[in-house]
Amino acid sequence: MLSMNDIPLKGKRVLIREDFNVPIKAGVITSDARIQAALPTIQLALKQGAKVMLMSHLGRPQEGIFNEEFSLEPVRAQLEKLLKKPVLLVRDWQNDVFDASTAHVILFENSRFQRGEKENDDGLAKRMAKLCDVFVMDAFATAHREEASTVGVVKYAPIACAGPLLELEMKALKHIVTGK
């Protein structure tokens, strides 16, 4: 398995699939543990000089329809606070032309707002892959889902690898299963 730690990221467009499916009540995150867990991966990519783009799902919205209740805006705000860097939320990345020059980090709106996400649509996966030079799968809790943003994009990204958080979770699982 190729590791993000083995790839030079300077100047590369790096798309990281994280698990930001955090509990939110009345627009407020009640636990940011998943965001905190993703920070080392994001910071490593930034430190290496990558252009960082993040993707995640949140909840179970109706596919293809924007629903503010499931927006990643609270996640964007928390990331910006924790990273102490601008984070740009891009709602319709497939159709919008977005200016990444004002943000250190780009967060794409809830992947489940995209038609074809849950069905692992090849067309959607190809469009995701075109966004990046390197795709990093760092979302252990969603790795079992055969969706465009978890499995499909891997087929088409120029380079696909495991992120540090995913590797850490896999080592823990191996230890539990094998005792080693």
Keyword list:
single chain, 180 residues, alpha/beta, six-stranded parallel beta sheet, two-stranded antiparallel ribbon, 5 helices, globular
Order of helices and strands: EEEHEHEEHEHEH
List the strand order in the largest sheet: 5-6-4-1-7-8
What's the multimeric state?
single chain
Q: Care to count the β-strands?
A: 8
Shape: globular
- Overall residue-averaged pLDDT value: 92
Distance between the termini: 19 Å
Helical residue percent band: 25-40%
Category from helices, strands and their pairing = alpha/beta
Global Rg: 15 Å
Contiguous uncertain segments of 5+ residues: none
Question: How many helices does DSSP assign?
Answer: 5
DSSP strand (E) fraction? 15-25%
Please describe the biggest sheet, giving its number of strands, its sense, and whether it closes into a barrel: 6 strands, parallel
Entry summary:
The chain is an alpha/beta fold.
What does this structure look like?
The protein is α/β, with parallel strands linked by helices and 180 residues long. The protein is built from five helices and eight strands, in the order βββαβαββαβαβα. A six-stranded parallel beta sheet has the order 5-6-4-1-7-8, sandwiched between helices.
List the helices and strands and how they pair.
Elements (H helix, E strand, L loop, with lengths): L12 E5 L6 E2 L2 E2 L3 H15 L3 E5 L17 H11 L3 E4 L14 E4 L13 H9 L3 E4 L10 H9 L3 E3 L1 H15 L2
Parallel strand pairs: 1-4, 1-7, 4-6, 5-6, 7-8
Antiparallel strand pairs: 2-3
Helix pairs in contact: 1-2, 3-4
